[in-house]
Specification:
alpha/beta; 3 domains; five-stranded mixed β-sheet; three-stranded mixed β-sheet; single chain
Length: 531
């Protein structure tokens, strides 16, 4: 059934591609309307032949068990057969008066767009299947972690720098003998030419407590180097190869977690976006470096997050030299069961000391794509999913505990320096662009235009029972009373919402009308924002 539905959908997409190609080509010729009218029946015949040969050649059946090359070659073969049939019919019916420009251009553009779309879709589905067990990247995120109370609320003056948690030297308590210690080998052999890195490790780890026989040092992104290692057998694992060149980062990190004993450490490094930008500026000057960085950011940061294009990207690049933010790296570490002991920038790369504390998360849909769905309490305690544009770095939802430890809370119980918010995310939040997808919730009848915030179950449980009951009598809203009253503490938020709901209970329309215009005034003229 799914295969049949997918085939029908692909045929519809192919029809759209055929019609678009014809109209696009005709648009460049004078008398477009006349061309469309004269060639309308011919286009229908061409479309039926093209689709018929495609169905016969199983072009619309994406077989993931075959290689991408085999799939592409089959598409090419089917298209050649379709082109041959079209030209044979032109010769048979002696339609030589047809415009060669129109015929050849329409066929060429159709074949090209079709190839780009379907082969890209093949690799996107292949990527999803290969990564399903250790986090797939989808357009919409609806993860378990987001459902469990993740806070995605506006942060004013969010710091771009990832804060460092100050801790003393980590002592795992393995009780290693002095003769088997890894310390001397690291100093005189493995890291003999990396004095800064050795100093960094020595300052943050009790190296005498790690056994040489249970330590592995690599400089490789190859998964097979660690695939056969016995589970829970290693106390320390060092990989000097940057994470940006790992084909499947999560798969590698999960295997490292499996190989380490509880409390064991993993030392790795990566080039953050900030370090990447500085490298461009150093090598190409700030002026040329800026333009090179923007192009690089689009190709190696944006494209890997677009579902269909993502398949092409990883097929062509194998994930090498990916642009990754420091926040995403740390989020992936926590997703894969590690706790950050310390981090430091050394020779243009960020080095991390990680401790195994948990098994990897079983969440297969961490935040990565542009849209996130947040689980919220609606009217009558019904669960709804609020749509928002993602304004935080990928995997930010796994850094709740890290943020609590690294940052103090400001008034209202929100983070005062939340590094997880991206620079463009701050702009989106300031202009409420990230809230636009909630219009879908409004059209579905899950939200009113004016109403209290839709809360997660975690925050809802913090409310007193009487206010919980009062809240559930009404739909949440796009414009909350917060912007009308501008409370600064949790207690003031409760008082503001209670006052609004009691008034709405008596006179719904008049209350919403009054609160909307008060919120509008505060936002437009007093620059009110959710802090």
């Amino acid at each position: 059934m799914k295969r049949r539905i997918a085939t029908i959908l692909f045929i519809i997409i192919d029809i759209i591609i055929i019609v678009f190609s014809f109209l696009f080509v005709a648009w460049f010729r004078a008398g477009t309307k006349i061309i469309v009218a004269n060639y309308a029946y011919t286009l229908v015949a061409f479309g039926l032949i093209w689709l018929g040969v495609g169905i016969w050649g199983q072009k619309f059946y994406i077989k993931l068990k075959y290689s991408g090359r085999a799939f592409a070659l089959n598409m090419l073969k089917v298209d050649i057969i379709a082109i041959a049939v079209v030209f044979a019919l032109i010769v048979f019916f002696q339609k030589f008066h047809y415009s060669r420009y129109l015929v050849f251009s329409t066929i060429g553009l159709t074949a090209l767009l079709e190839f780009l779309f379907f082969v890209g879709l093949y690799y996107a589905l292949q990527f999803h299947r290969e990564n399903a067990s250790f986090a797939s990247a989808t357009f919409i995120t609806k993860s378990k972690q987001l459902e469990e109370g993740f806070s995605d609320r506006f942060i004013r003056d969010a710091s771009k720098a990832v804060p460092k948690i100050e801790r003393g030297p980590y002592n795992p308590g393995f009780g290693t003998s002095e003769t088997d210690s890894i310390k001397i080998s690291l100093c005189e052999s493995y890291l003999a030419d990396k004095h800064k890195l050795y100093k960094f490790l020595n300052n943050n780890l009790n190296l005498d407590d790690f056994a040489k026989s249970k330590t592995m040092v690599l400089n490789s992104a190859t998964y097979y180097n660690i695939a056969a290692i016995e589970a829970n057998s290693q106390q320390m694992f060092i990989n000097l190869h940057i994470l940006n060149n790992f084909r499947r980062i999560n798969k590698y990190l999960i295997k490292v977690n499996e190989n380490l004993a509880q409390g064991g450490v993993f030392i790795c490094c990566g080039e953050s976006i900030a370090e990447r930008r500085n490298r461009f500026y150093r090598t190409l000057t700030p002026y040329l470096g800026f333009f090179a960085y923007v192009i690089d950011f689009f190709l190696k940061r944006v494209l890997p997050k677009i579902p269909i294009v993502q398949g092409w990207y990883f097929a062509l690049t194998k994930g090498i030299d990916r642009a990754i933010s420091e926040t995403e790296m740390i989020g992936r570490f926590y997703f894969c069961g590690f706790d950050l002991i310390s981090k430091d920038e050394i020779d243009g790369a960020m080095f991390f000391i990680l401790k195994k504390v948990n098994p990897p998360s079983d969440d297969t849909n961490p935040s990565y794509g542009p849209i996130i769905k947040l689980k919220r309490i609606g009217k009558d305690r019904r669960i709804i999913y609020i749509n928002k544009l993602r304004t935080m770095h990928p995997y930010s939802e796994y850094l709740q505990d890290y943020v609590y430890k690294a940052s103090a809370l400001q008034e209202g119980g929100k983070f005062s320096n939340d590094f997880r918010v991206t620079s463009w995310g701050k702009v989106f939040r300031t202009l409420w662009i990230d809230e636009l997808p909630q219009i879908v919730n409004f059209l579905k009848g899950e939200l009113d235009f004016v109403g209290v915030r839709a809360l997660s179950e975690h925050y809802f449980d913090l409310y007193p029972p009487d206010l919980q009951e009062l809240r559930c009598k009404f739909k949440p809203g796009l414009v909350p009373p917060f912007y009308a009253d501008m409370p600064t503490s949790f207690e003031e938020i409760l008082a503001s919402e209670r006052n609004y709901l009691l008034q709405k209970q008596e006179n719904p329309f008049a209350t919403d009308w009054k609160y909307f215009w008060k919120a509008f005034w505060n936002i437009m003229f007093k620059h009110a924002r959710s802090k």
